[in-house]
Design a protein that fits this description.
There is one protein chain. By secondary structure, the protein is mostly beta strands. Helix content is 0%, strand content 70%. The protein is built from no helices and 21 strands. The protein has a 21-stranded antiparallel sheet, with no helix packed on it. β6 and β7 form a beta hairpin. The radius of gyration is 29 Å and the shape is rod-shaped.
Length: 240
């Protein structure tokens, strides 16, 4: 390198810490390590005095990011290791999870799908440590829209969600071959719905807060006929 080159290497002290690495015309450029006064550290690429390119940032909390940077922000693909044992592998934008990514939770859960502004948003699959699985849509970190939840006991719900709860139209197929097809609200059967019992009986009518409540048409399989009935608190009350 000629004596007139603007490139150099060295150590420089700043108000917020110490930099050890490469410079161009007196500005941090190239490879370098910054030791912050608060105990944090960045080791990687620099451009025009800012973190940009690929590098690793270790936080005082114990968390760590290893990946791409732009204009001082996590931007592009990277891995974020959380202090609590969680790990995110995917895309970032302006320091937030954004785009496609996989979150591995310390407790064994896993989410693989779309992110927006740091939250699950769009389409994705959530694998629960309990062996249940959800496939569907999210909005601002919660199940919203169409989705299927496969319960670990064999039950399957296929329908609409709102704020992490079954809400709207949906079908719940039980592992004992019974089935509910109808309306939901706040995670329970509510409104109009049809329930098929494993013995062949069918309840077709009104539901309230998870229970058969109100007018219905009831098919008695043993008699082979439909009867208009009124139910209260999940039980037959009287014929209509």
């Amino acid at each position: 390198m000629s004596s007139g080159s603007k490139y150099s290497e060295g150590v420089r002290q700043y108000d917020n810490g110490k930099y050890v690495g490469e410079f161009y015309d007196g500005i941090r450029e190239g490879k370098g390590i910054f030791y912050y006064n608060n105990g944090e550290k960045y080791d990687g690429d620099w451009k025009n005095g800012k973190i940009e390119g690929k590098g690793s940032y270790t936080y005082k909390s114990g968390s760590k990011y290893d990946g791409e940077w732009k204009n001082g922000n996590m931007e592009g693909n990277g891995i974020f290791y959380y202090q609590n044992g969680d790990k995110y592998v995917g895309h970032f934008e302006k320091d937030l999870k954004n785009g496609k990514g996989i979150m591995y939770y310390d407790g064994g859960d896993k989410y693989d799908g779309d992110w927006k502004k740091g939250l699950m948003d769009g389409k994705g699959i959530f694998y629960y440590a309990s062996k249940s699985k959800y496939e569907g849509y999210y909005k601002e970190g919660k199940k919203n829209g169409k989705g299927i939840l496969y319960y670990n006991d064999g039950d399957i719900y296929n329908g609409n969600w709102k704020n992490d709860k079954r809400d709207g139209k949906g079908v719940l197929e039980f592992h004992n071959n019974e089935k509910y097809d109808g309306e939901w609200k706040d995670d329970v059967m509510n409104g109009k719905g049809v329930y098929n019992f494993d013995n062949g009986d069918i309840y077709d009518g009104e539901w309230k807060k998870g229970k058969a409540e109100g007018k219905c048409r009831f098919y008695h399989a043993s008699q082979g006929k439909w009867v208009n009935e009124i139910w209260k608190d999940n039980q037959f009350w009287k014929e209509a």
